[in-house]
Amino acid sequence: MDAAITVLATQGVRGVTHRAVDAEAGVPQGTTSNHFRTRDALFEGVVERFAQRERAAFEDLAGAADPRTRRSSSPSSRTGRSRRSGRAGS
């Protein structure tokens, strides 16, 4: 589907054909149509893949911005000791 997105970006909607996607992906002619029988089905696949890519990018950004998911460089994170109790693993 990434090949179909590339074709869409470079050739526009009219350029998105099964043959064009096969050529961009470097697969034998007819491969795309085996997986997506119609052009509508091909576009549904493009939309789904695009949504997956965008969701993954958003989750990466959200994770990077969330202090709960970032690795801390504080001394307690390196030693495994809690700042409150001073005990390991707390």
UniProtKB/TrEMBL annotation:
Residues 17-36 bind DNA. Residues 58-90 are annotated as: Disordered. Keywords: DNA-binding. Residues 1-54 form the HTH tetR-type domain. Residues 80-90 have a biased composition (Basic residues). Pfam families: TetR_N (PF00440). It comes from the Bacteria. GO terms for molecular function: DNA binding. InterPro entries: Homeodomain-like_sf (IPR009057), HTH_TetR (IPR001647). This is HTH tetR-type domain-containing protein. It comes from Phytohabitans suffuscus. The lineage of its organism: Bacteria, Bacillati, Actinomycetota, Actinomycetes, Micromonosporales.
